[in-house]
Amino acid sequence: MKIYRYVIDHDMGFSPNPFHGVCTLANCKPVIRRVAKIGDFVLGFGSAASSISERLIYWMRVEEILSFDQYWLDPRFEKKKPVMNGSLIKYFGDNIYHTGYDDQVLQDWSFHSLPNGDVNETNLKTDTGSTNKILVSSTFGYYGERAVTIPGEFASIIPHGRGHRTEIQGCSVSEFADWLLSEAERGFVGEHSGWQGL
């Protein structure tokens, strides 16, 4: 079991997407999506520039790994397809990639496309260029603006700077995982900090 941690630049509900009872990581963080395995944990923390710096925005235990097409075609995740004139929950839907007849990856109109719906080539390359994996979890906690302060004995879990971290010194991975599963509140708990003012 590994614990992948990173700093979230934009807490908008898109990546991760914690709605409809399932937390999905379907965009951004291509390295984590490529290498994470079932049973691993993924954690996102507030950035230094935010009011929730070094606090836990979300965690998920990876329980399923899907391809873009599996995610796109699965009726369980139909509600995660974006509706650009819908509510914020619908607007930030993350089920946006699938392949066409020529196996070209198609990008649906979404938060990651250009404002007029055209393909954003930069996001397309980042999201799909090195992996087609999507991480899925029903065992998660999403706190948003109510981000959680990590207990002092687990302070070494908190990442700093860009990129993700896997190496942990100063605390036990299994003990921290036990704390998440036994003590941390689960499900969708707090609204996204990035929604303030929208």
What labels describe this entry?
single chain, 198 residues, alpha+beta, six-stranded mixed sheet, three-stranded antiparallel sheet, 5 helices, 18% helix, 22% strand, globular
Q: Could you tell me the mean pLDDT? A: 92
Number of helices: 5
Based on secondary structure, the structural category is: alpha+beta
Strand order of the largest sheet: 10-1-3-4-9-11
Textual characterization of the structure:
This protein has helices at residues 30-35, 68-73, 88-91, 121-128, 173-183, and strands at 3-8, 23-25, 41-46, 56-61, 64-67, 97-99, 105-107, 133-137, 140-142, 164-165, 187-188. The chain has 198 residues and is an alpha+beta fold. The strands form 3 sheets. It has a 6-stranded mixed β-sheet with strand order 10-1-3-4-9-11. Strand 6 and strand 7 form a beta hairpin. The longest helix has 11 residues, at 173-183. 36% of the residues are buried.
Write the layout of secondary structure elements.
Elements lengths: L2 E6 L14 E3 L4 H6 L5 E6 L9 E6 L2 E4 H6 L14 H4 L5 E3 L5 E3 L13 H8 L4 E5 L2 E3 L21 E2 L7 H11 L3 E2 L10
Parallel strand pairs: 1-3, 9-11
Antiparallel strand pairs: 1-10, 2-8, 3-4, 4-9, 5-8, 6-7
At a glance:
The chain contains 5 helices and 11 strands. The protein has 198 residues and is of the alpha+beta class.
